[in-house]
Amino acid sequence: MSASMLTSVVSLRRTPLLPVCALFALATLLFALRVDARLAPAFWWQALVAPTNTDVAQLLVHYSDLPRVAVTLLCGAALGLAGVATQQVLRNPLAEPMTLGIFSGAWLALALATVYAPFLLAGSRDAVALAGGAAALAAVFALAARRGMSPLALILAGMIVNLCGGAFCLALAISHYDLLSGLLIWGGGSFAQYNWSVALALATRLVPCALLLRLLLRPMAVFDLGDTIASGLGVSLRATRAITLGLALIIAACVVSAVGVIGFVGLSAPAVARLAGARRLRGRVIWSPLTGAALLWLADQLAQLCTAHFSLTIPTGAITTLIGAPLLIVMLRRLRGRPDLARTPALHSAPLSPRGLRVAALASVLAPATVTAISLSLGRGLAGWHLSDAHEAGALLFLRMPHVVAAAGVGVLLALSGGIVQRMTGNPMASPDLLGISAGGALGLTGALFLTAHPGLPTFLVWCAAGSMLTLCALVLIARASSFSPDTLILAGMALSAAFQAISVIAISSGDPRVVVLYNLLAGSTYNVGPLMAALVAACALLALAAVPLCRRWLDILPLGDAVSVGLGVRIAGARFGLLMLSAMLSAVATLVIGPLSFIGLMAPHMARMLGIRRAMPLLFVAAAFGATLMIGSDWLGRWVLFPQEMPAGVMATLIGGLYLILTTFRRPAQDWPGS
């Protein structure tokens, strides 16, 4: 008898039953406490089945609280099921609708329809979200196909699509804030309900998808056996994968159109179920939806608890991101086939001759000068585009020159920061934007604004630099195990960026009057830059250009590897720490002016490297000139493209950088990618 009891206890420990029950119990307790504060327990059953029309508390429970629970459970279960199905057919433990770009594509489609085709949202909101998610998923597969559809390539492509989609959404929100302000708040994940219509609509859409995925259980299980055995069994892997991804896409589109973007539930639920003992696909298909429902319900109850006790409105999607982003970082170590940079030579263009280097240096001087002249003389008015004469240009110089100087200084700082990180890690895809360094600086700005009494420019600079340096140190610790492989480093940086952005979303949703200042800091506009601020940025850029040659020996030797660096007498730890400090300071100053995203730190060194420049100093100086040119051009385009409205220079640079990143990925041959 005791042996059978012991066996039953061991079997319970090997299943996710206890963890799932614990999550449901905690969520139920929080829900009961919140309802108890509104309605006495004696009236709960009446509020559930037949609320009294004259009792406001019963009506709120019946038409608001209970539908919200139903919608939360439906969305959590559906996302958990979509996550486990997507991971199975792609054989990728990091795949889910959020990491594959489906959510951002659906949200962007809804934003575009709201602005340009609102009639589409009247009766086909789900169809609009489905079209956007399908387009994003197609772009992800097209990008990942250039690298053989490897697991890391697929997630990296999804993160790129997420960044670009987020940049386009931000640009639309700035240019049409009156139409999209509500969509931005709702996009963080809003489960507020006023009747049972949304819950019933979701049930009619999600339950058939779940049943169809259940019918595909046996074909999906064959993916564990490999392509050869599956083909011998007569299973079409391509058809099974297409049908499964199509159903997951429909689930994600329905969730986004109903409640907004709820990220990382499809990643967290299967991971928790697997770690709790659900090893086989049949078990994960059962336990992942239950785990997803419990996780999302608990996250929503925590969000409502914060709202009730701290008067702080927190989107549920921000809490799920704070849970899923660290989990993504932990799971990066479990992926196989990480590239080793030491054994993967990247292909570059032919090195420049001395004459070619002189021509490149001359072009790098003429390019910012030409763009500066265009920015100061060519503008747009009520009569259209016009070229200012000398008198008009001189009269407007006091307005335009600070913007140009600040943009040029920021471009230099970001280009130098990106070039230093790329040389230090040997990673051509490293930049302050993709690695989360700028997002860490933005988190520092948020902390300075909300945690200090009267923050000024020195306070913002110190907090911004501290956030950037902490992010860099975290990235070094995470990526050291993979020899600073490009994919692992970028994915870890993007995960950190997602977590930091969730914290910023929580701060923005607080309703604090200081949120207006935070908007201006994160948008990255040079509109409010005056002569003093422009002079400070220019001085920092000049100091950076003067300080970089002092690190010349480190920048030339570190890319050769640890063994060579030690043999040449370089103290690797000290050199990396010094370069990290310098890169973090440069990124912090730039983030103060231009916001957390711009891609300049990625584009400028990449463009200089494409010219064939190899040595550290010429590469960094030419990259600095390209960075200044790109930022001046972005500031000019942002000022006049949407005239009389203004697009922040940081957002415009992000749009240009995102398109550049996608086009570069498409044009670059698959064998040029590290680890392909």
Quickly list its features.
transmembrane helix, cell membrane, 676 residues, ABC transporter involved in vitamin B12 uptake, BtuC, 73% helix, 29 helices, mainly alpha, 2 domains, Iron complex transport system permease protein
Q: Strand share of the residues?
A: under 5%
What is the CATH level 1 assignment of the largest domain?
Mainly Alpha
CATH architecture of the largest domain: Orthogonal Bundle
What is the assigned CATH homologous superfamily of the largest domain? ABC transporter involved in vitamin B12 uptake, BtuC
How many β strands by DSSP? 2
Structural class: mainly alpha
- Please tell me what the overall shape is: globular
Protein name: Iron complex transport system permease protein
Subcellular location: Cell membrane
InterPro entries: ABC_BtuC-like, ABC_transptr_permease_BtuC
Family: Belongs to the binding-protein-dependent transport system permease family. FecCD subfamily.
What does this entry show, briefly?
Helices cover 73% and strands 1% of the residues. The protein is mostly helical and 676 residues long.
How does this model look, in words?
- A hairpin with a 2-residue loop joins strand 1 and strand 2.
- The protein is mostly helical.
- The chain has two domains: 327 residues, ABC transporter involved in vitamin B12 uptake, BtuC (Orthogonal Bundle); 292 residues, ABC transporter involved in vitamin B12 uptake, BtuC (Orthogonal Bundle), CATH 1.10.3470.
- It is built from 29 helices and two strands.
- A two-stranded antiparallel ribbon has the order 1-2.
- 50% of the residues are buried.
- Helix 4 packs antiparallel against helix 12 and helix 19 packs antiparallel against helix 22.
- The protein is globular and about 80 Å long.
- Its main location: membrane.
- Keywords: Cell membrane, Membrane, Transmembrane, Transmembrane helix, Transport.
- It is found in: Cell membrane.
